[in-house]
Amino acid sequence: MLSYWQHIEFAQPRAFFLLVLPMLLMVWKAWRYNQHYAELRMSTLQGFGESTGGYKGWLKSVLFLLRILTFCLLIVVLARPQSNLKEENITAEGIDLVMSLDVSSSMLAEDFQPNRLIAAKTLAADFINNRPNDRVGLVVFAAESFTQCPITTDRLVVLNLLSKIKDGLIEDGTAIGMGLATAVSRLKESEAKSKVVILLTDGINNTGFIDPMTAADAAIEYGIRVYTIGVGTIGKARHPQSPVPVDVKIDEPLLREIAESTGGRYFRATNNESLKQIYDEIDTLEKTKIEVSSIQRESEEFYWILFAAGICLLVEMLLRYTLVRSIP
User: Fold this and answer.
1) DSSP result, 211-267
2) What ranges in 48-196 are assigned the alpha helix state H?
3) 95-287 placed in CATH 3.40.50.410
4) pLDDT digits (tens, 9 = 90+) for 27-80
5) Cβ burial, residue 203 (10 Å; 0-12/13-18/19+)
6) Could you give the CA distance from residue 81 to residue 300 in angstroms, rounded to a whole number?
7) What are residue 300's DSSP bridge partners?
């Protein structure tokens, strides 16, 4: 019942000012009663016998209340209650997206907190959570590559498999071409209007049997945009497997060429905050298309109130000309 009234509006709300009339009538009725009937105190009612006067008085009060209720209901009818239902049809055109993540040993460098790999996974999870209408897949690569999660709309599955990514899953190395080619293969059969790969690495292509630009050409052929992210500070970074800081070497010209040739962009992340800003920017660049069409319906809702007022009036008239009339 409460949910019903949430959709009710009144075409003539000023009619409710008329409610002051039944309130004044009730005040007048109470004043008139006090003027005509004095209070009489008696120690006992024995000897008076049974009388119908009290019953008659009670019924007359019921008649008055029915009349007041009828009047109030008619005022509500004058206010013209209307249901105002708004229906929305939402059509979401999502994006098919594959995140290709470098899991080589260099991703354990501690220029990100607590290291590059964990920072990349944490911020990737935030990015995925902000894309409820997209299908997302995961690819990991080092010396080789494999699909960690096929593209799916089930974010819980994607996030669970993302959390299980760790170093040592694959033979060490950096096969950027393999990581990109595997991601492209997951999207080539996609029928989505927008297909995107986000490739994140911290090194230089030094292994693998697929050249990175060959994989980029395949992305172009299938209409896939590639955003590349190079992660690593400028200069040297601490690494748990080295007693001294190691040089940070990222093949930025290659990553930039891959991105620009496919219609994407290259980004350089030097710490957690800059990586977060990069994911936010990609999120802005790759907006999901959502179309909303609204249908508004209005219908008069005073009929049942008018019916209730008629019932109250009918009951009042039946009591007045039958039962109350027959009571002396």
Assistant:
1) -HHHHHHHHHHTTEEEEEEEE--SSEE--TT-SS-EE----HHHHHHHHHHTT--EE
2) 53-78, 116-129, 155-163, 176-187
3) yes
4) 777 777 666 655 555 555 555 454 444 555 566 677 778 888 888 888 888 888
5) buried
6) 6
7) 82
pLDDT tens digits for 163-175? 999 988 899 999 9
Strands annotated E in 275-319: 289-300
Instruction: Tell me the domain boundaries of the chain.
Output: 2-35+52-85+296-326, 95-287
Give, in order, the Cα–Cα distances in Å from 295 to each of 11, 84, 87, 90, 292: 19, 10, 5, 12, 10
Decide: helix, strand or coil at residue 290: strand
Round to the nearest angstrom and report the end-to-end CA distance of the chain: 43
The CA–CA distances, whole Å, from 98 to 72, 186, 204 equal: 64, 8, 21
CA–CA dist 74, 95 (Å, integer): 56
DSSP H/E element including 277:
helix 272-285
